[in-house]
Amino acid sequence: MRAFIAIDLPETLRSSLGQCQAFFRPSAPGARWVRPEGIHLTLKFLGEVEPGTLEKIKESLKTAGRFEPFRVEIIGFGFFPDARRPKVFWAGVEAGPGLAELAGHVEGAMASLGFPPEERPFRPHLTLARFREPRPQPALAKVLEQQTELTLGAFDACEFFLFESRLSPGGAEYVKIARFP
Predict the structure, then answer these.
(1) Contact call for residues 7 and 172 (beta carbons, < 8 A)
(2) How do 88-95 and 173-180 pair as beta strands?
(3) Residue 17 contacts residue 33 (beta carbons within 8 Å)
(4) What is the tens place of the pLDDT at every residue in 22-75?
(5) Domain spanning 2-73+94-129+156-180: CATH superfamily
(6) How far, in Å, are 7, 65, 113 from residue 106 at the CA level?
(7) Residues designated as active site
């Protein structure tokens, strides 16, 4: 099964993100938009996981995943890797050092189980859309220029989850496997 570790979002924030997607969608008709119910703050993508490894992952996260709750603010938008050749359109995430510390603990715990460490630095974001071909999106970029530092909402992160990602023709569906308060 495909799995990842992430912080789930409150429903009110998902609704705000869905409204933003509806606003931006006409400016990027070739994008594949993430369903609002599937938007999450990824801490670590694991990929394919053997069923026998799930219990080891859960046990490792129980100890490595203890953290003090922290505030997460959703603000601004951008592209990965950049606006000239975007693969991902995202909403920005600002949080205190607690988020980076949690991501580091999760990364370390998974590395100890043999999952390869992420080579890129942790850049928290919420994926709103993906592009099939990394080419400029001038209409979307123009709409973004008109947006100032728009704050979409904030919440207190006090738990994270181990998710299963089920791929289907209609897009990925995410199922919570375990909760870590």
Answers:
(1) no
(2) unpaired
(3) no
(4) 999 999 988 999 999 999 999 999 999 998 899 999 999 998 768 999 999 999
(5) Cyclic phosphodiesterase (3.90.1140.10)
(6) 12, 6, 11
(7) 40, 125
